[in-house]
């Protein structure tokens, strides 16, 4: 008998796209699926009502769709944790409300986990679509990290987003699920799995589609900045497994990302630029010069 898979869909402010996400779940070739939609919209808002009405159209989904209405907005991490706590599946997948998964994603990943009992999380390749682009721009995410790849993860900084995953529920529970951080929630959870000595792996096929607005490709929100800084602090605890040069490369990448997020805050931007210069003997030094000259040309002097 097929093992039950729980697909958790947290939704907030995207009532117009959740139908696309649900359609992709309905089209899965793997049939023993339960769907849990965690409605994180405030109860009296139009988005909350649209979500409720939309779900009524999916009464023919096997095992149905369970709707959990949060009494107040709790954020993406806790919304996923609520779905996790209410799930009954052996395996758990997460799907953002504006993304979609291809028909054989769950089937392929269940097969992999059934054959590889030492793997806690398996991800897949992903296609990124820029919805507001006139050029039909597409980017493919094809990382190939396997095993307890903590060192490689520190060097890269990311492996796969939540929509690409299928996880063993007991593995997620053993590390306490998602940390309630402002951003980098997916990367933080993978880091926790690797810290706990668990293994990840990949099904090397494009099985998920990630939708973004190209105009919002770099978030400059305070939540985004704080989440990145917290993630950097957690990564720093593992620098002992890296060489000095590798540490400088990792620190440069963090400083560069924070520099771009802080471009409207001269004081913080300058601090980030100084961090970039301090680690200038890494491979990315000339990128620091590029950003310096770019902002200098636009009247933003940082040095």
Describe the structure.
The structure is a single chain. The protein is of the alpha/beta class and 303 residues long. Helices cover 41% and strands 19% of the residues. The protein is built from eleven helices and nine strands. Helix 8 runs antiparallel to helix 9. It is globular, with a radius of gyration of 20 Å. 35% of the residues are buried. The model is unreliable at 299-303 (pLDDT under 50).
Query: What is the helical fraction, as a range of percent?
Result: 40-55%
Question: What structural class is derived from the secondary structure elements?
Answer: alpha/beta
**What is the strand tally?**
9
Order of helices and strands: EHEHEHEEHEEHEHHEHHHH
- Molecular shape: globular
Q: Any low-confidence stretches, pLDDT <50, length ≥5?
A: 299-303
Tell me the major beta sheet.
9 strands, mixed
From the alpha carbons, calculate the radius of gyration and give it in angstroms.
20 Å
């Amino acid at each position: 008998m097929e093992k039950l898979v729980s697909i958790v869909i947290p939704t907030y402010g995207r009532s117009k796209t959740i139908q696309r996400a649900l359609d992709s779940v309905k089209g899965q070739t793997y049939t023993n699926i339960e769907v849990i939609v965690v409605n994180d919209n405030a109860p009296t808002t139009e988005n909350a009502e649209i979500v409720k009405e939309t779900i009524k159209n999916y009464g023919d989904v096997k095992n149905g769709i369970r709707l959990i209405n949060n009494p107040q907005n709790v954020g993406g991490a806790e919304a996923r944790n609520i779905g996790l706590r209410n799930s009954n599946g052996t395996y758990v997948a997460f799907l953002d409300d504006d993304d979609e998964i291809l028909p054989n994603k769950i089937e392929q990943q269940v097969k992999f986990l059934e054959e590889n009992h030492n793997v806690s999380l398996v991800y897949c390749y992903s296609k990124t679509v820029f919805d507001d682009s006139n050029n039909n721009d597409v980017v493919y995410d094809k990382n190939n990290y396997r095993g307890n790849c903590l060192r490689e993860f520190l060097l890269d900084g990311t492996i796969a987003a939540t929509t690409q995953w299928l996880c063993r529920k007991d593995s997620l529970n053993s590390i306490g699920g998602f940390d309630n951080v402002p951003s980098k929630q997916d990367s933080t959870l993978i880091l926790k799995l690797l810290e706990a000595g668990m293994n990840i792996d990949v099904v090397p096929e494009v099985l998920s589609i990630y939708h973004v607005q190209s105009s919002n490709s770099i978030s400059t929100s305070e939540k985004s900045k704080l989440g990145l800084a917290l993630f950097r602090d957690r990564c720093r605890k593992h620098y002992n497994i890296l060489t000095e040069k590798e540490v400088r490369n990792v620190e440069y990448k963090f400083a560069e990302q924070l520099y771009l997020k802080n471009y409207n805050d001269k004081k913080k931007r300058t601090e980030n630029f100084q961090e970039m210069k301090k680690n200038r003997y890494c491979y990315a030094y000339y990128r620091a010069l590029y950003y310096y000259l770019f902002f200098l040309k636009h009247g933003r002097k940082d040095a």
